[in-house]
Each structure stands twice: as structure tokens, then as C-alpha cells.
Design goal:
DNA damage, DNA-directed DNA polymerase, 5-stranded antiparallel β-sheet, SOS response, alpha+beta, 3 domains, Dna Ligase, domain 1, Rev_trsase/Diguanyl_cyclase
């Protein structure tokens, strides 16, 4: 018997985090905007009911915002990240192990709890999350991650489940799968959904019954594994090769256009610092770094310029200081005066496991540098990003993204901790 798996998903997560500290947002339409206050990336149920769509540009819905009194907030990722840690702390005792899948979703291994009423077990977990954080959640349970994810979607969409759907029961599982559109199944993209529709496969139940060899021919091993999971067979039981991550990027648009090289250097330095942190968190090193920047191509009346420079990294590295040096060399070679830069970033390619990287004769004391990187990661992990930064990054960060409607750092900055007046 497969071990039961649960997926707990925080409802309207960004909005729920904001409401935890500002009761004026409860019961009113709220949207949270993307980087640089561009588009709606989170919507309360009230905002959804008013027709606000995910990704709506804020300048196109300004009339609706004004007409309905919709509250608009900038993204506060520091708050959302800290609240995620609190949610994880609240659920830890309810599972043998857990896997944080995204900032608002966590998979739970329920091995050892099979003799309990799992629905009641996860309801108690939901209650604890609500008490500790005020954040409402939905939970799906199943013998595989795909079924847990599908159960979570059913729990969120169908009020009959009262926010918890246990698909361990085969009869209930069949009922849900036969009513779930195949295009909404986790892992089925638009192109695959069109191919399946051409074969008359429109529901998750029909996909489950598809021959696995046919699934592999249509959508590679990914679709074959998905079919197995819909049948209650964990993907680990299907022979697969875990793909190696080939590259990663750190890019941002600027809140205010950058017109001097020194300011651009500060931004690129931060991106390289973050790139090294991401590499180390995955146990990887990179062989190549590409730095790029460009003007706003949507304003053709202004002078346009786009540049990129590729730098080989020898030896391969995840050392943030080495990445910074490479990125800055790229900027120095590519910079041209007289342009207003609207976006910049770095890309890291040819990634391999750090333990498998080729060694060179003149690497120096790599262990000492490795300990330094661990110390930096530890400081930033404890005190928040940018707690320790290289001087080249600067401290004013004039190029930072626009966030004119950002809420306070309620939980991570002592000066902004909410105060309760005594009666």
C-alpha cells in the first residue's frame, strides 16, 4: 500500500498574509501586484468575484479599482516568506516528513498515521495553521503527489468537501477524476491537453485509463509517470531519469530607469550574489555566466540599446564573489552612455553537481571560500536577505523595483512590529 500523501495549500496566500496584520482588509476586495506594481498576481475571493483576472495589468483595471474600492498592495515577499515558515512550523507535527513545494504549498508524508481518520487528522492540522497564522487552507490526500494535488483542487473548488478531499478511497477518487478536466491536471500543459483532446481524452479519469505506452509516445516519460500516479502508483515506481537542471537566471525590471554604470553595477552585483545563493542551495556550480541589460523596448520614441556578454567561469563555481567579478567585467565591456536601462539580469549555464566539477591545479583554498559562502547564507537566512552584502552592491539601491503600496515588514523588522494599545 502506498504511503498516504497530503498537500496543504494556503488560500489566496499573499492576500491572507496581508490580512493577518491588517483587519481592514478582511471582507473587502484586495489585490496584490507583481514586481514594479505591474500586474495582479494575487486576488481575494471578493476581487475574483468582481472579474479581476490573474495577470491583469493594473493600469487597465484602474477604473474598476476606483469604482469598487478595491484595495491594492505591492508585493511584500519578506512577509510572505516569514509567514511560510510559520505555516511549516504549524504542520510539522502532523507528518513524518514534508516537502515545501512552493511558497503556499507543502506536501506531507503521512506514513505512521494510516491508522487514523486522515480527514480528521488534517482538519486538526488546518485548525492549528489557522490559530497560529490566521491563514485559511485546503488539503488534498491521496496515495501519490498527483492525486493529492488533484484532491486539493477539488477541496478548493467544491464546497461539498469542506476544504478537505481524501482521495484514498477509490470510489471517491473515480468520482472526482471523471469530473476533472484533463487540462487542469497537474503537469498537463496546453499542447499536451490539445493532443489528448484529439484522442477524445477530456477528463482526468480518461487520462488514467490511457495505456501507459501510448502516454509515453504522446508526452514522453512525463505523461507516462502522470498516468501511473493517477492510478495510485507513485512515480518512483516508474523507471525515470531525473533531469539535470541546465540553467538558472536572476533578472529584474527597475522601478526607475538606470542611466549610469555605477548604479547598474550595484544591481548586477546583487543579482550575481543571489545567483550564487541559488546555486549553492541546489548543490550546483556553473561554467558560464551571461550578464545582460536593455532599455524599454515598449517606448520606441526613446534611444534603444540592448547588450549581453558571456563570461566563462574557470574553474566552475558557485562562489558569489567570483560571479560578481565576472558580471561586473561583462557590464564594463558592454556599457554605453546615453541610455536609460529598464531591465538587467544574469544567466548561469552548464550547471553540474558541485561534487562532480572538474578540479584545477590553481584553485586556491576552496574550502575556506566555501565556509565564507556558508556563513553569508546563514546570516541572510537568519536576519533576512541583504543583511550582509558586498560593498559593490551599495546600500541605497536606487535601482530597486517599484513598490509604492507595500505593507510593513510586520514580522521581521523590529521598528515595524505592530503595536497594540493598552486599554
Amino acid at each position: 500500500m502506498p504511503t498516504p500523501i497530503a498537500l496543504i495549500d494556503c488560500n489566496n496566500y499573499y492576500v491572507s498574509c496581508e490580512r493577518a496584520f491588517d483587519s481592514r482588509l478582511v471582507g473587502v476586495p484586495v489585490i496584490v501586484l507583481s514586481n514594479n506594481d505591474g500586474c495582479a498576481v494575487a486576488r481575494s475571493a471578493e476581487a475574483k468575484a468582481l472579474g479581476i483576472k490573474m495577470g491583469d495589468p493594473v493600469h487597465l483595471i484602474r477604473d474598476k479599482i476606483d469604482r469598487h474600492g478595491i484595495r491594492v498592495l505591492s508585493s511584500n515577499y519578506t512577509l510572505y516568506g516569514d509567514m511560510q515558515r510559520r505555516v511549516v512550523a504549524a504542520v510539522e507535527e502532523f507528518a513524518r516528513d514534508l516537502e515545501v513545494y512552493s511558497i503556499d504549498e507543502t506536501f506531507l508524508d503521512l506514513a505512521g498515521f494510516e491508522d487514523r481518520d486522515l480527514a480528521a487528522h488534517v482538519r486538526a492540522m488546518r485548525d492549528q495553521v489557522l490559530r497560529w497564522t490566521t491563514i485559511p487552507t485546503c488539503v488534498g490526500i491521496g496515495p501519490t503527489k498527483t492525486l493529492a494535488k488533484l484532491g486539493n483542487a477539488a477541496a478548493k473548488k467544491n464546497p461539498l468537501f469542506d476544504s478537505v478531499a481524501d482521495l484514498s478511497d477509490e470510489v471517491l477518487r473515480t468520482w472526482v477524476l471523471d469530473r476533472f478536466a484533463v487540462r487542469d491536471v497537474w503537469g498537463v500543459g496546453g499542447a499536451t491537453a490539445s493532443k489528448l483532446a484529439a484522442l477524445g481524452i477530456h477528463t482526468a479519469g480518461q487520462l488514467r485509463d490511457m495505456p501507459m505506452k501510448q502516454g509515453r509516445a504522446l508526452g514522453t516519460v512525463v505523461l507516462e509517470r502522470l498516468i501511473a500516479e493517477l492510478r495510485g502508483i507513485p512515480s518512483g515506481a516508474v523507471e525515470t531519469i531525473e533531469p539535470q537542471r541546465k540553467g538558472m537566471a536572476v533578472t529584474r525590471s527597475f522601478g526607475t530607469p538606470v542611466t549610469d554604470m555605477a548604479t547598474l553595477m550595484g544591481a548586477v552585483t546583487q543579482y550575481a550574489m543571489r545567483g550564487g545563493e541559488k546555486l549553492r542551495s541546489h548543490g550546483l556550480v556553473a561554467a558560464r555566466l551571461t550578464v545582460f541589460f536593455h532599455t524599454n523596448r515598449f517606448k520606441p520614441d526613446r534611444p534603444q540599446y540592448s547588450a549581453s556578454r558571456m563570461i566563462n567561469l574557470h574553474p566552475m563555481t558557485s562562489d558569489s564573489f567570483e560571479l560578481i567579478a565576472a558580471a561586473r567585467r561583462g557590464v564594463e565591456h558592454a556599457w554605453r552612455d546615453g541610455y536609460a536601462i529598464s531591465k538587467a539580469g544574469i544567466m548561469l549555464d552548464e550547471l553540474i553537481d558541485a561534487e562532480l566539477r572538474p578540479r584545477t591545479l590553481f584553485e586556491g583554498d576552496s574550502d575556506k571560500r566555501g565556509r565564507l559562502m556558508e556563513a553569508l547564507d546563514s546570516v541572510d537566512g537568519r536576519f533576512g536577505r541583504f543583511a550582509a552584502v558586498p560593498a559593490a552592491q551599495g546600500f541605497k539601491r536606487e535601482w530597486k523595483m517599484r513598490a509604492d503600496m507595500k505593507s510593513p515588514a510586520w514580522t521581521t523588522r523590529i521598528a515595524e512590529v505592530p503595536r497594540v494599545a493598552a486599554n
